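Notes for week 9. Today we move from apo structures to complexes. The key idea is that a small molecule is not decoration. When we ask for a structure prediction with coenzyme A present, the ligand SMILES becomes part of the input, just like the chain. The input block below holds both the sequence and the ligand string. Read it once before you look at the output, and try to guess where the molecule might sit.
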Amino acid sequence: MADAKLTDLRAILRYIPQFREKTFILAVDGGIVTDENFATLLLDVALLWSLNIRVVLVHGAAEQIRSLAEDHDVSASDFDGSGVTDAPTLDLALTAATRLSHKVLEGLSANDLRGACANVITAHPFGIIHGVDHLFTGRVERVDTDLLQSLLGQGVVPVIPPLGFDGEGKTYRVNSDGVAVAVAEQLKAVKLIYITSQDGLIFRGQLIRQVLVEELGKLVSQDGAGFEPEMLSKAQHAMAACQAGVPRVHVINGTLEEGLLGEVFSNHGLGTLIHANEYEDIRPAKKKDIRAIQLLTKQAVEADELVRRTRVMLERALGDYFIVEIDKNPVACVALHVYDDQKQGELASLYVSPAHENQGIGRRLIQFVEKRARERGLTELLALSTQAFTYFQSKAGFVEGRPEDLPPGRRETYERSGRNSKVLVKRLQ
Ligand SMILES: CC(C)(COP(=O)(O)OP(=O)(O)OC[C@H]1O[C@@H](n2cnc3c(N)ncnc32)[C@H](O)[C@@H]1OP(=O)(O)O)[C@@H](O)C(=O)NCCC(=O)NCCS
């Protein structure tokens, strides 16, 4: 910490109020538990805990089952708890999972954290699917949330292995990605973070930085083969978590030193963020956002992409403004000015911060404004732009118009400004 900057600390402290007393589920792949960076990861867990963030650790065991099988010359029937688990494989899974849980507990205690490996997953057999008996593979039936809450309430980090138990004391091998979803749902976690050995969800060789659950659903159903099998599982489970009410799911690389904190405490993390609702992060601007809007758009104003707006101007039209927040930080804005007499609306002040460009936020803001304009019964949407006119045309279906298309009062200010912006028009049917 010697060379940590105070500004870093300020950036982190900004997030604290929103996460205090909230639950994060960290789902760690087995391979990460034995990675040399795991100690750093647990240090980060200690930091989260010290900020009153409740952390639950779920871990997998696939990698260790693979290496145990090799060591013992056993041919394992499955590694990750999604296929058939025969008796010898269950045996390997028990050994691997127990050792890994123990390793996690050791690591927690090295950071002065109390941990407990909890038997909180009730499972029943996965059963016979298309004629194939999955034997000792289990399906999560219930999560003992009382026990988990009681541990968390006492300051204990629950550690959950990829094993489930039925009422008769039988053990089943369950998939850890699925356990994490069930636990996140039941504990109403605000974040589920998959910690893997890859940089995030990679689709056809490209890292996805941020994606809406609906868009991810389309990718998975249209071209699931574009993901590696392991990442397809993460994608599917991330979708299931979002659909079950977990607002944000992250997939990050646990071998990177700043992976976890970078993802949680910056508004442009290093991995993949999967989030739930398309317009959830767009909200009306409030008086306290005026300064943030000015700061956000400063560069664009200087580059003459946007008109300079004073505090008074912004204050007067504040009801027209919307901002996009990522983890409580404004990263984009837009306004809809309405000309009721002409049934026209003007989309203005569209801006996306450079760190969040090319993620579809601009398009989403335009769609959002369009939707509002339609709801207001407007028939035409206008936009004025000096440097993004082809964007409005190619990405949002606007066509080039003329100054005469503007409502009279607006045309006057347009002429007076001398900016010579292009006028763009979109009919709303
Ligand atoms: C224009 C702007 C809003 C785009 O936001 P964004 O969230 O990055 O855009 P999206 O992710 O929806 O779309 C990205 C696509 O638009 C293209 N694009 C971005 N800026 C562009 C511009 N000025 N002109 C033409 N195309 C542009 C990108 O190349 C990318 O193309 P691709 O999908 O084919 O790869 C953003 O760059 C910005 O804030 N610019 C400065 C302010 C401005 O000019 N505002 C408009 C005046 S109201």
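The first strand starts at residue 23 and ends at 28.
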